[in-house]
Amino acid sequence: QVQLVESGGGLVQAGGSLRLSCAASGSIFSINTMAWYRQAPGKQRELVASITNTRSTRYADSMKGRFAISRDNAKNTVYLQMNSLKPDDTAVYYCYIAFPTERPVPEYWGQGTQVTVSS
Q1: pLDDT per residue over 66-108, tens digit each?
Q2: Contact indicator for 97, 24 with CB cutoff of 8 Å
Q3: What are 96's strand-pairing partners?
């Protein structure tokens, strides 16, 4: 089992910044992908950014240039630096981890952290 604990959400004005953190604990395989997803009210959950254990990253188009994902493998922690925030970024942000070399592929989610951007 794996536990994911997010922190860093909150209320920020448009144009501001926030940094989310997510610490994973439990049975962590070294080959893994960590990611941030978000879900706004009435919308489907969407990928924000992902990062592999080799630090290969992928971003949703709307986040490129504003958000940066990083990780500390020694701490099993992933971060999301969010800059130039917009009201449309308001959502619950979820941390995610998967272990792609295992079958079936284990996937785990955090409980989510609220990010609210005021105009």
Answers
A1: 999 999 999 999 999 999 999 999 999 999 999 988 888 899 9
A2: yes
A3: 35, 109
